[in-house]
Amino acid sequence: MLTSISRIALVAILACTTLTAQADELTPAKRTQIKTLLEVTGIKAISEQIANNTVQSWAPGIKQLDPKFPDKGLAIARDAFLASLNTKIDTPGGLIEQVTLVYHNTFSGPEIADLLKFYQSPVGKKLLANQAKVNGETFQTAMKWADSMSADIDQRIEAGLKKEGLKLPEPPKTAPGAPAAGGTQPPAKK
Predict the structure, then answer these.
(1) How do residues 25-65 score in pLDDT, each as one tens digit?
(2) What is the dihedral of CA 91, 92, 94, 96, to 10 degrees?
(3) pLDDT (0 to 100) of residue 184
(4) CA distance 155 to 148
(5) b or e along 10-31 (b: 16 or more beta carbons within 10 Å of the residue's beta carbon)?
(6) What is the pTM of this model?
């Protein structure tokens, strides 16, 4: 049996849930704004990335099976893959509909409007035009930063493993100047 405090809390929770759902349902207007936002931010480029990455991942296996398989064949496979994705991207159950739900569940209607306004502004357009470059340079900068800390990282890993009575296995011994099994030599043991 619910106490009066429990009933009040339950009613308050249900009222908030109802108000939230009513305040931000996926209206046709919100759906249209999200679709416009997805178009402005380049949702269709994802199909090309998927097709390129997938066929590139196939290439070594195909070349191993048939070293003479022409690059033209890989280009044809990529183009067919991309065409297949693009025919379904904006259909019921397609990528745009599915990603629309992601945006709907993450952003309110006014937030979608603000995002759309931003990406259509000069600085938003500049961000979109430079996003790949910025992401690539950011990743490279982060990798260099992490590499600069390798001595500290190595010490912490070694100390953490030692505390648990563990030790990383030694890399295989190679002749001086010979590359290691992976084609590169491991860092010298201190």
Answers:
(1) 999 999 999 999 999 999 888 999 999 999 999 999 999 99
(2) 80
(3) 44
(4) 13
(5) eeeeeeeeeeeeeebeeeeebb
(6) 0.62
CA dihedral 59, 65, 68, 74 (to 10 degrees): -30
The distance between the two most distant Cα atoms of the chain, rounded to a whole number of Å, is 81
CA distance 118 to 163: 51
47 residue type, one letter:
S
Contact (Cβ atoms closer than 8 angstroms) between residue 43 and residue 103: no
Q: Classify 153 as helix, strand or coil.
A: helix
Tell me what pLDDT residue 177 has: 64
CA 20 distance to own-chain centroid: 29
Going by C-alpha positions, the residue among 146, 149, 144, 154 that lies closest to residue 189 is: 154
Q: What are phi and psi of 167, to 5 degrees?
A: -145, 140
Question: Please, where are the H alpha helices in 41-187?
Answer: 45-65, 71-88, 95-106, 109-120, 122-148, 150-163
